[in-house]
């Protein structure tokens, strides 16, 4: 049995005590049972269940409309046990309300096996809750999976406030100019390669390698192995929906272990030879005792995960919408329209469709009470299509005057730290694509990601001319 420094029994010990084949079998069975239960509810018309299942998941916008109608400004209930807010007003209210957090009221993680609230399945009126990872560590099968530490995203104040302050200088405006140069140079190179081939995959040949290169610069990772980073990012990004299969669980464990090794190694190198980058700054804080090594590694991992697949989806969703609505020609005529196209994509078809919060006390929203520790899905993408907030919301218009702010980057304490960076990367990609490949057009079926939280094309075949 292994012990941690305090001599207590660690969770890893419990995880490895089951033979792997038995744990795999249990996990596989559990996933299959949960899927079947969810699908049955979806077939009976439950809107929250439909968000998680095909075919409804492929186009969730009619389901969001149903949820907005059902919620009537407040909380929509579902037989899945997961509550949801779907209108712009209710989503904004939950995100800004300090009575909600990303953890339970007593600071424990949702689905912490030692939590009474989770053991009893408590939620609003008996409704259960959900986590970002969707894992239930009380189950011996899922307990085998290393929980994904999402750093800032899974912290409430005061830890969240302290860590966010340390991460903020990475995103200072003067740094953005430097990242823009990298983005332009990388996009130019990727488009040269793509143009030489004629036909290419917009996702894997442009929209994915671009943010990976920018994050590698941000973290000052030399000689980045793009396909490996893409694999890690995919495994972790997909885990936002929960673990899909035993294979996914193993890919996730491998990705987490590899990333921890990579960042652990980077920390040592920066300690020996500090630079201007974010890791060097954080190593300094580590030595000052302002943060722990685990916090540092998790934060670096979050920057990679948060900034990769999200930006990839932004580029893919923007090109898809521009092509589908006949507004690609407008962008070609005026590449400066890239700014409006990025903003409209964030409202119309955002890369991150939803997030979750937990009530830290009983809270009333739109006449309904959410009980302490109950979870609520905040449907960011539904807010962007709310007719009470946006005129003619189902129309994609890159020239739209955005009078009501969209919620694609969330709101309140967890507002996306990389929002300006993501906008810049999206704008560079669209502008340069329109300039260099004005006759760009689809060249086959777009394959969507298998996901609910992250939305975008997994493969997007296009032709340059
Ligand atoms: C289009 C691209 C992006 C979208 C749509 C997006 C969206 C989001 C959303 C919705 C959240 C908050 C989730 C919540 O409230 O629970 C978030 C948080 C965050 N994002 Fe982004 N993001 C994008 C790009 C980036 C980039 C490029 C980076 C950095 C490299 C980044 C770094 C972060 C970080 C560090 C947080 C955590 C903030 C906190 O918890 O205080 N994001 N993002």
How would you describe this protein?
By secondary structure, this protein is an alpha+beta fold. It has 18 helices and twelve strands. It has helices spanning 11-16, 20-43, 47-52, 61-71, 88-96, 116-119, 159-167, 173-197, 202-207, 209-218, 226-238, 246-272, 278-288, 293-324, 328-333, 338-348, 380-384, 419-436; strands at residues 75-76, 83-85, 100-101, 199-201, 355-359, 363-365, 368-370, 375-378, 441-442, 447-448, 457-459, 461-463. The strands form four sheets. It has a five-stranded mixed beta sheet. Strands 4-12-9 form a three-stranded antiparallel beta sheet. Strands 6-7 form a two-stranded antiparallel sheet. A hairpin with an 8-residue loop joins strand 10 and strand 11 (457-459). It is globular, with a radius of gyration of 22 Å. The model is unreliable at 1-15 and 112-146 (pLDDT under 50). It binds protoporphyrin IX containing FE. The site of protoporphyrin IX containing FE has 24 residues, from helix 14 and helix 18. Protoporphyrin IX containing FE (HEM) is lined by residues 152-153, 164, 215, 302-303, 306-307, 310-311, 314, 350-352, 355, 408-410, 414, 416-418, 421-422.
> What share of residues are in beta strands?
5-15%
Record field, number of beta strands: 12
Order of helices and strands: HHHHEEHEHHHEHHHHHHHHEEEEHHEEEE
What about the largest sheet?
A: 5 strands, mixed
Give a quick rundown of the structure.
The chain has 465 residues and is an alpha+beta fold. It contains 18 helices and twelve strands.
